[in-house]
């Protein structure tokens, strides 16, 4: 553990060094972020997962900086270039860019115009000119004419000297720092279409002649233009006004107006245009890309978090349907543990005869397997199949729910699906996934690559390593905050439990298959290769309902069982009585159980768990239905008020499923009557909302929606019907109406955004 790193991080994040140090020490010991946040509050000062992850990532960054620092020092020392002054500057470099600026003049480089000029012996002339004393440059240069070295005139000598000065300018640390700030603050992002690509690159039409300050460019626009550039349709440049850049450099290097200063000025201009501007443009583009990646990853990760934590239906007997027209609807019946009991195919959309047979089959399956809910995938034929099922006259106790099936096909062809259902084809596997997704979204979605579940924003364009790390953090956070049922969890779900991973998760499942259900958490220690450290990390997040110890069903860690047992003994009852009776818990004096390592945060957590052992932090499930009579985009008209489900949140707005096989967009300006900076302030993924149709573009299959209170009247005025016609239609008696057609410290701020806090 590096004390300097701890000091830097504590200052950056505004936390106590002791807390940062405790986190660093625990991480070194192999502790996970969820474990530290939940079970080591006394050591860290109750730091949350966001700050702990920030400490972890900053430690990695500082470690990488130190590795690069050592490499630079080694290179300089090996070549005999390391001085005490240079060593001190390198040691004090606080960022990679500063370190690289210091190293740049000494870095081994290919032959440049400046190195050629130095080989011709022109560096003394460059030094003389750079001093900008009174002189005749031509006379000074004449002394360096040497045909043998390739210098045949004074002008050639001056040109070579200017090349050397230009390189000095481009490698000067102060100049680079100031120029970096200029590019970041005053750089303009300009894109234009490549000649003759107007037709083939039509999807980038908005950016054929686009410009805006790079400092203000939103994430989605930066990534979109970069994608257009990489696909060969756009040209992208990021430059500040040239006159400002040249004036800045002249202010640093040009010291007067004499002839020598004129030579330096010419060299400065050349150094900027030929060397420095390209270097700075590459840097600012990289910074903009990194910033855009951070925002896109933040949005994606938060969407995934909300989707994973969507309300579960719970343990119910479910009939799942994967809809289809030509190939029919695949049906799967699942028991309350998600086990496949039966599969079949029905054809409700072929003919009246087929529809009748399909209806009879579904009624029979509902009775045979005591079905409590029906999950209908929202893909092709989804709304038609939902309407068909609702019209079968099934018992009202059976809820019918449309389920987002994004990624189900990816799962069905995966190795995970083949392992689970080796004897079933991909259609059955996908149908099972739809049903299980209704029962427990978290348990099922962890089996699918998050990039395949439809909630990202340019997720394939961002840094894939950073994206994976962020998504892994989110999935692990969600899994451990909910808790995992040890005796029924899949290998994929167990993989994300703190301290386990793929191999131990596989070992747990194999042990369970061989020996039966785990009677207690302690039984985990019998799993091969699962030692005390892994047990410590994982045990508190695993649940055993109706096990030998009632605390095994809670988030109370086994290391604290003795505390609970002491509480029960002190008030003369059993542990199970503490769980059942609030009156008994109120008799407990927590101060009696304080120790050097156990403080009030842990004791308060224990009391919370005793009150609601193993509580699920997710919201309660509420059935949702789309508007009747609206099943395709052609059914929409401006002014309609429709129920919908938020499917994706982007920086510019949110996408809402209104049941027409095409999500509509609620632009950020239409989310609320108040000003909104971030759509996540207003809605979350899978939230039920009511929207107004503003406009429908059938040709491009685009739907504009609004969540504003006054949107209906505005949409009606701008739609196909006039306001007068709309009002008249609303006055018709009900029986005559047609069916309705319904972002202080940038490092810390990044992590605050990441957490939604």
Structural class label: alpha/beta
Instruction: Round the Cα radius of gyration to an integer and report it.
Output: 33 Å
User: Which CATH architecture of the domain at 113-303 would you pick?
Assistant: Orthogonal Bundle
- DSSP helix count? 32
> Major beta sheet, specifics?
5 strands, mixed
Quote the CATH topology of the domain at 113-303.
Tex N-terminal region-like
* Poorly predicted tracts of residues: 716-757
**Oligomer kind:** single chain
Q: Strand percentage, roughly?
A: 5-15%
Distance between the termini: 29 Å
| Number of beta-strand segments | 15
Mean pLDDT across all residues, rounded?
A: 90
| Helical percentage | 40-55%
**Biggest sheet: strand arrangement:** 6-5-4-7-8
Give a brief outline of the structure.
The protein is 49% helix and 11% strand. With 757 residues, it is α/β, with parallel strands linked by helices.
């Amino acid at each position: 553990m590096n004390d300097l790193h701890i000091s830097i991080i504590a200052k950056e994040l505004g936390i106590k060094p002791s807390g940062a140090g405790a986190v660093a020490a625990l991480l070194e010991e192999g502790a996970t972020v969820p474990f530290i946040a939940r079970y080591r509050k006394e050591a860290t000062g109750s730091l949350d997962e966001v700050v702990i992850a920030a400490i972890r990532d900053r430690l990695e960054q500082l470690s990488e900086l130190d590795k690069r620092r050592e490499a630079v020092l080694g290179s300089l020392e090996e070549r005999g270039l390391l001085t005490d002054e240079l060593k001190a500057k390198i040691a004090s470099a606080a960022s990679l860019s500063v370190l690289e600026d210091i190293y740049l003049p000494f870095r081994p480089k290919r032959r440049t115009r400046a190195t050629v000029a130095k080989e011709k012996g022109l560096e003394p002339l460059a030094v003389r000119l750079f001093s900008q004393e009174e002189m005749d440059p031509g006379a000074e240069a004449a002394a360096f004419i040497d045909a043998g070295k390739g210098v045949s005139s004074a002008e050639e000598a001056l040109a070579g000297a200017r090349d050397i000065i230009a390189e000095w300018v481009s490698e000067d640390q102060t100049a680079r720092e100031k120029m970096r700030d200029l590019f970041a603050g005053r750089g303009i992002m300009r894109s234009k279409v490549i000649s003759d690509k107007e037709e083939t690159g039509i999807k980038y039409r908005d950016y054929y002649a686009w410009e805006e300050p790079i400092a203000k460019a939103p994430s989605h626009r930066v990534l979109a233009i970069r994608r257009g550039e990489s696909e060969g349709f756009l040209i992208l440049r990021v430059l500040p006004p040239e006159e400002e850049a040249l004036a800045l450099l002249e202010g640093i290097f040009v010291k007067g107006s004499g002839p020598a200063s004129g030579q330096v000025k010419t060299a400065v201009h050349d150094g900027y245009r030929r060397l420095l501007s390209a270097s700075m443009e590459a840097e600012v583009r990289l910074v903009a890309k990194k910033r855009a990646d951070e925002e896109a990853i933040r949005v994606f990760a938060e969407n995934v978090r909300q989707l994973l934590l969507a309300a579960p239906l719970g343990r119910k007997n479910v009939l799942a349907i994967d809809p289809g027209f030509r190939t029919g609807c695949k049906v799967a019946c699942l028991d309350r543990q998600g086990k496949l009991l039966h599969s079949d195919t029905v054809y409700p959309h072929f003919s009246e005869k087929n529809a009748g047979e399909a209806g009879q089959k579904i009624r029979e399956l509902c009775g045979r397997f005591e079905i409590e809910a029906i999950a209908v995938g929202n893909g092709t034929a989804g709304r038609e199949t939902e309407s068909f099922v609702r019209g079968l006259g099934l018992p009202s106790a059976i809820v019918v729910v449309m389920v987002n099936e994004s990624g189900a096909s990816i799962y069905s062809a995966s190795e995970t699906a083949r392992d689970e259902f080796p004897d079933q084809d991909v259609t059955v596997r996908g149908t099972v996934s739809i049903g299980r997704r209704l029962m427990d979204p978290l348990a099922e979605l962890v089996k699918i690559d998050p990039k395949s579940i439809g909630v990202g924003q340019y997720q394939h364009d961002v840094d894939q390593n950073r994206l994976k790390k962020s998504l892994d953090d989110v999935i692990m956070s969600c899994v451990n905050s909910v808790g995992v049922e040890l005796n029924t969890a899949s290998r994929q779900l167990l993989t994300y439990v703190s301290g386990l991973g793929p191999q131990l998760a596989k070992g747990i499942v194999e042990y369970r298959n061989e020996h039966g259900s785990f009677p207690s958490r302690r039984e985990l220690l019998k799993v091969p290769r699962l030692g005390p450290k892994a047990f410590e990390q994982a045990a508190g997040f695993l649940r055993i309902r109706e096990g030998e110890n009632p605390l095994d069903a809670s988030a109370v860690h086994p290391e604290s069982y003795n505390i609970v047992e002491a509480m029960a003994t002190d008030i003369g009852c059993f542990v199970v009585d503490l769980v059942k009776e609030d009156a008994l818990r109120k008799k407990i004096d927590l101060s009696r159980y304080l120790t050097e390592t156990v403080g009030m945060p842990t004791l308060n957590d224990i009391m919370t768990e005793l009150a609601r052992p193993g509580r699920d932090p997710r919201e309660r499930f509420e059935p949702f239905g789309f508007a009747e009579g609206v099943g395709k985009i052609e059914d929409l008209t401006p002014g309609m008020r429709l129920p919908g489900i938020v499917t994706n949140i982007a920086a510019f707005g949110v996408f809402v499923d209104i049941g027409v096989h095409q999500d509509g967009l609620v632009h950020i300006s239409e989310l609320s009557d108040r000003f909104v900076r971030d759509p996540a302030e207003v809605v979350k993924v899978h939230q039920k909302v009511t929207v107004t149709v503003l406009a429908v573009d059938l040709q491009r299959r685009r739907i504009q929606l609004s969540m504003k209170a006054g949107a209906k009247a505005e949409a009606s005025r701008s739609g196909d019907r006039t306001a007068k016609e709309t009002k008249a239609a609303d006055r018709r008696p009900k029986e005559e109406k047609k069916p309705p057609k319904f972002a202080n410290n940038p490092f810390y701020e990044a992590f605050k955004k990441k957490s939604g806090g």
